[in-house]
């Protein structure tokens, strides 16, 4: 059977419809097929674990980790390695087989829970279980919306897990939801309810990760991050995994090798615990999509801890290392040992032989405005709002991307009146954080809370302001939401915001292709979700 690719999970999907030949991200059809199969078998395993729990039997945390990392691997720009993904499918099937033996009741389990590769081969099965296997457009749309939200939730769980934090209730929900996506008896209304429930667990998942990060590394604080380079050779670390960064910083002590952050690792500088490392040199480059040029110029090795990785140019492929959920064929992958530690000596040895990074720019980024830092200056913020010095906050969190249409966000930031403050998180910030937009009475006009998961901080800040101003509804606050999305972590952030009651979110640069017209209508009618138009019109609409 022809193995036709279909993927529409990210904002850059071909023609705003779906990638069918090869991914705009570089994902090949055979990799897309293995990812479809991995999702299918992970749903099957989740149906089994959900039945086990219903029978009162515990599910080992190792199985929970397996499920979360499987989902994480299929997120946009995480893993392009077909062999690595096939190995995960095999492992998942083996674990499922073992767990099936422990079930008292195996009646009426979905087909995915019983499938194993002795029936038909991986490629043949993958061709039957992709996104288009669900024929009804609205059911498919809701199933995929939930699946993508769960992928984002899984990524955040994985980060909390590596720091020793877990919440069995979140894993139980995640798995029961995955299992329910196999159930053909669920109606559009059932799936709409499950979408909203996913948002509730998204809030819990981000709260768990926030707790894990802040209890382990301290509360982010106002920090100036250097953008220039030093004279030593360096290692560039990208992605979102703070534990990997900590291990790398430890292992590079006394080696003469500096460590620079890239992309979504920038906010690591805001955490007190990382400030003690004198070789933690600064941030290099911009958002993920500029990496082909910037990794070339870095000269030293690059460690990708999570997405977004772009398939590399041959010129620096040997310097690109992956770990965790990421994978690129031809690049060395650093596996965790049984105790979770990683040996980065191969990267450090390579760095010693490389030239120091070529400087791209000079200057500083100011950030660290997560919840506690903002609460510490809450009086100042409240006074500025009361005096009229701050008229409006604009949440511009989310992702950056390649599309030219995203220049809108830089232009929008520049066009905002001087009495507005941007609240941001995620790699979207690179569109305007270096523009020197000034401050209002000492409060910077761009307040960066951190990574995309730190959008949770922005929600806490909104709830705090609601309390201080004695408002009933978070939507009465002078806050507009103009969010840029790209991949599936942004989906869980969006669902979490909807759960918290936030309305009238503008989502751009385009609405997700996976929203069918009917599902989009439900989101518009119930939550006022809209997209963007021109900078002028949107400033009028959002700021007044
Ligand atoms: Fe960006 Fe990529 Fe953080 Fe995403 S680096 S696009 S939403 O992976 O996760 O913001
Ligand atoms: Fe296309 Fe995005 Fe899927 Fe890549 S992740 S194949 S760009 S829809």
TrEMBL record:
Hybrid [4Fe-2O-2S] cluster binds at residues 240, 264, 308, 399, 427, 452, 487, 489. GO terms for cellular component: cytoplasm. Binds 1 hybrid [4Fe-2O-2S] cluster. [4Fe-4S] cluster binds at residues 7, 10, 19, 25. Keywords: 4Fe-4S, Cytoplasm, Iron, Iron-sulfur, Metal-binding, Oxidoreductase. It is found in: Cytoplasm. InterPro entries: HCP/CODH (IPR004137), Hydroxylam_reduct (IPR010048), Prismane-like_a/b-sand (IPR016099), Prismane-like_sf (IPR011254), Prismane_a-bundle (IPR016100). Pfam families: Prismane. The modification Cysteine persulfide is found at residue 399. It catalyses: A + NH4(+) + H2O = hydroxylamine + AH2 + H(+). One of its GO terms (biological process) is response to hydrogen peroxide. Its cofactor is hybrid [4Fe-2O-2S] cluster; [4Fe-4S] cluster. Its EC number is 1.7.99.1. One of its GO terms (molecular function) is hydroxylamine reductase activity. It comes from the Bacteria. NCBIfam families: hybrid_clust, PRK05290.1. Belongs to the HCP family. This is Hydroxylamine reductase.
């Amino acid at each position: 059977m022809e193995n036709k690719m279909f993927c529409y999970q990210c904002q850059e999907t071909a023609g705003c419809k779906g990638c069918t030949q090869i991914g705009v991200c570089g994902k090949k059809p055979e990799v897309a097929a293995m990812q479809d199969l991995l999702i299918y078998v992970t749903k099957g395993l989740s149906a089994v674990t959900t039945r086990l729990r219903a029978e009162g039997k515990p599910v080992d945390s190792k199985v929970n980790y397996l499920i979360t990392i499987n989902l994480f691997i299929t997120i946009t720009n995480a893993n392009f390695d077909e062999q690595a993904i096939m190995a995960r499918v095999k492992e998942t099937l083996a674990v499922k087989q073992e767990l099936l033996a422990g079930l008292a009741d195996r009646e009426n389990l979905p087909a995915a829970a019983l499938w194993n590769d002795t029936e038909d081969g991986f490629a043949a099965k993958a061709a039957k279980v992709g996104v288009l296997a669900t024929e009804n457009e609205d059911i498919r749309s809701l199933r995929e919306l939930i699946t993508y939200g769960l992928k984002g939730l899984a990524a955040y769980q994985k980060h909390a897990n590596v720091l020793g934090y877990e919440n069995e209730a979140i894993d139980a929900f995640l798995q029961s939801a995955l299992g329910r996506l196999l159930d053909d008896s669920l109606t559009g209304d059932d799936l709409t309810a499950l979408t909203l429930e996913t948002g509730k667990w998204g809030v819990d998942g981000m709260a768990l990760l926030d707790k894990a990060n802040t209890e382990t590394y301290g509360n982010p604080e106002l920090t100036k991050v250097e953008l220039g380079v030093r004279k030593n050779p360096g290692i560039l670390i990208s992605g979102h995994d703070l534990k990997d960064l900590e291990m790398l910083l430890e292992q590079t002590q006394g080696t003469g090798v500096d460590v620079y952050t890239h992309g979504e690792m920038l906010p690591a500088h805001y955490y007190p615990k990382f400030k003690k490392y004198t070789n933690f040199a600064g941030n290099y480059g911009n958002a993920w999509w500029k990496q082909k040029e910037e990794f070339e110029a870095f000269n030293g090795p690059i460690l990708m801890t999570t997405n977004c990785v772009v398939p590399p140019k041959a010129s620096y492929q040997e310097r690109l290392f992956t770990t965790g959920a990421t994978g690129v064929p031809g690049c060395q992958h650093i596996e965790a040992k049984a105790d979770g530690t990683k040996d980065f000596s191969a990267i450090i040895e390579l760095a010693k032989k490389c030239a120091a990074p070529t400087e791209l720019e000079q200057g500083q980024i100011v950030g660290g405005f997560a919840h506690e830092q903002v609460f510490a200056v809450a009086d100042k913020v409240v006074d500025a709002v009361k005096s009229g010095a701050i008229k409006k906050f604009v949440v511009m969190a989310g992702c950056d991307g390649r599309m030219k249409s995203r220049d809108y966000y830089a232009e929008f930031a520049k066009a905002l009146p001087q009495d507005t403050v941007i609240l941001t998180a995620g790699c979207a910030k690179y569109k305007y954080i270096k523009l020197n937009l000034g401050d209002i009475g000492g409060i910077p006009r761009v307040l960066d809370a951190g990574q995309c998961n730190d959008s949770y901080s922005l929600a806490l800040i909104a709830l705090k302001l609601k309390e201080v101003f004695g408002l009933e509804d978070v939507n009465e606050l002078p806050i507009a939401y103009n969010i840029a999305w790209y991949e599936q972590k942004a989906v869980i952030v969006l669902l979490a915001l909807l759960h918290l009651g936030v309305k009238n979110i503008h989502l751009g640069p385009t609405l997700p292709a996976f929203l069918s017209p009917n599902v989009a209508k439900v989101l518009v009618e119930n939550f006022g979700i809209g997209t963007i138009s021109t900078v002028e019109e949107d400033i009028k609409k959002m700021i007044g």
